[in-house]
Request: fold
Amino acid sequence: MIEVRGLTVRFGGVTSLQDVTVSFARGTCGLIGPNGAGKTTFFNVLSGFVRPSAGSVRAFDTDLLRLAHFRRARWGLRRTFQTEQAIEELSVYDNVAMIHEHSRLSAGSRRRDVLEAIAFVGLDLDPRARVATLGAGQRRLVELARAVVGRPRLVLLDEPAAGLPDEETRHLREVILQIPSHAGALVILVDHDMSLVRACCETTAVLDFGRLIASGPTEEVLRDEQVIRAYLGTEELAA
Amino acid sequence: MPSWQDFQPFIVSGLALGGVYALSGVGLVVLYRATGVVYLAFGAVGAMGALIAWSLINHAAFPDWAAWIVAIVFSAAITLAYGMVFGAALAKREPLVKAAATLGLLLVLFGVMDLLWTSSGGASRSLSLPTDNGGFQVGSVQVVWTQVIAVGIGVAIAAATGAFLRFTKLGTAMRAMANDREITATLGVPVRRVEAAAWLGCGALSGVAGLLLADLVALDATTLTFLVISSLAAALIARLRSIALTFVAAMVVGLVHDLLTPIQSLTNYRDMTPFVLAAVALLLLSQRRVISLSREEA
Amino acid sequence: MESVGLSTSARERWRAHRLDASALLRAGAVGVLLLFVLLALPQLLSLYYIDAMTQVAVYAVVALGLGVLIGRVGLVSLGQTAVLAIGAWVSARLLFATSLPFPVVLLASGVITMVLGTVVGLPALRMRGLYLALITLMLAGAITVVLATVNFPNGGHGFLGYNGNFVHIPSIRRPAIAASDPAFFRYAVVVAAVMFALVLAHVRSRPGRAWAAIRQSEPAALAAGINVTLYKLWAFALASFITGVAGGVLAAAVRHLYSIDFPTQDSITLLAVVLMGGAYSLWGAVIAALLLEFLPALLNNWGVSADWLTIVFGVGVLQVLTTAPRGLAEQVPRDLARLWRLVAGRGRHRPAVGGGAR
Reply:
């Protein structure tokens, strides 16, 4: 259970988030909104890269904002980014193992956990392969493996399917659907692909110009007039 | 502790030095704001200009004023050439890469200078300006016209550049480009021409600074090349942003440096002044920490 | 998702076989080269070139330190020459003032330099890229001024160990087993090899992987739980340590130290050769040192001014930076490093890149 209250982010005259109060209960939750709505800023607050001007975030009874950014991974926060972040010069195994290592999980179960995560996302290759040799779809899967290895509590997925062809997006959808049951984590998914959001998320919150304009069961939210108006003029909602 | 009398001549020389640092610092800041390049070769370019002037005066019987003009034109031309070739090639890279590239230019010029003007042991070169002869008396201190000019040019350049950036079309374009080159281009601003103007202006200033420093300090390739670090210190204290602050910082650096001269216990360390001031300023000013995810952050 | 013809286990075995073979080959090549350098080289070269090669050993370690910072972590330091000077200063002081065995002096010099480097690095590391580079330049400049005033120890008394009135200046002592120039050359090479091994150990284990993550993207590294500041500091500490040790070797190599031997320009030239040799690969550091110390000796012998090299280095910097597609910490082998790698057999082992947009 993630409870966000009155979250405001103001920097240099720009208010990216304005008094956002929302809760994410369990399973997979969507976070959508037009470009510039503040979705990535929201993730950045959760990751600890941006300090909010006001507001609180309580995640599973922890005051998340009190933790230093690099300690949040140890707490159980995982995140993917819009641009690929798998480390090219290292192998797939090392990429995933690094998360395990720095989250201070026990070294004894490391090999098993890492291989399990790699298998879970459906990467069928020698884990010693260097990421530099992989294609975009496979790299996304490596990032996803990094996000689910060990026992994460909260997984933030920032446009995981961006730039991928349909076939790979479909595979990604299958994997994302299983994350809550496999890893026991709460997932927040940001994406513009509405079919992905519909398929994976039971509930969805919508941001527009830094404000929360809707939140609740996904189908209802997508039919909400305000939400449709926010997306007016774009084809995203129709997808 | 030396007396007030002892300090007085150093106030004057310190102001003069500060004036040249201000002039250099402003050149560095304007170029950085327009192109994102910290022109570390500023000193080397000016040094070579001064050496060329020296050669023309002493070996080619050029009249002084003509030699100085050649020096300034040379500095401007080399800087413009660098800007048009390498500045353009590296335009999309991070500021660190752009600055490191200017070190390449510095090394090339340094090598050339040492080849053509070998530092032959003993015989040292000097460049004198006619304003060295004559001056006036302020209290018990002799003030040489060159020093007045140094301060004057420093003030004039700082003021003129500040006004230029704020009130002219070209200046406003430069300020816009500092924020985002791409967007400025889409607004119809002739980005390449604005950059060229910035490079040219900065180059000319380096020529002037080179001549003044060759007169006030020494005509030596190494000294002049690395004096840019003092001007850079002033520019860094101003966070490579404010012209006014660069001016003030430069005057402070120059003054403190020279005022340490009569203090016996510190005099040997006075060359540390720009480094220490810049390091302290940078460390203090970087207190607030915001992780930036943008690539424009220096 | 691509599917290659072989099954997983078959591919696994095949790749394991290839990795082991090439790793053994590389280790073998390095071993042979090292033996050649230690045993054969001193017999083949004149004293003049042995001195130059001793300098190469010293500066290979310095270049390695800078290479770790630039190539592995993505930090640019323009003050490594000052760090080397500090290491030399500390070693000279200890060698004159105490009768500690030479290796202990090297170790102490490394540790003290490391502590100083870390203390100075800590506040500086909060800055990014450009500002960090400029502040290291500032700090190096300050240190250079201090050294010019304080001078290097020359056997005098007092904390600074400098006596300006000496008529006969004592020489810095060398280890008993390596008193002659050829013997000291071997000693220097062994020390350098140990430093390289130390760095290799770092690169292959946890800090190396963390550095790779930091270089790729700091936010992503933080999100992965990596304490970025700690690992950057670690890189600084490592670079300072090995450079401090190199300073000790340098002190004993030249026997007399003068502050004019460490001009500001050297930090810039060092950056140039490290970029040209390749900041990422360990071999790049050796190439950098050969450019920096061997070529000038060669040119000097032939009556060509070393200034031409300075010009070449300047052009080299411009060439490397304009052709490197991304950042200063460029993984793609640079011209000379590329050649070297082809020779060492690495060029063949890059598998075909999979499909999909990059």
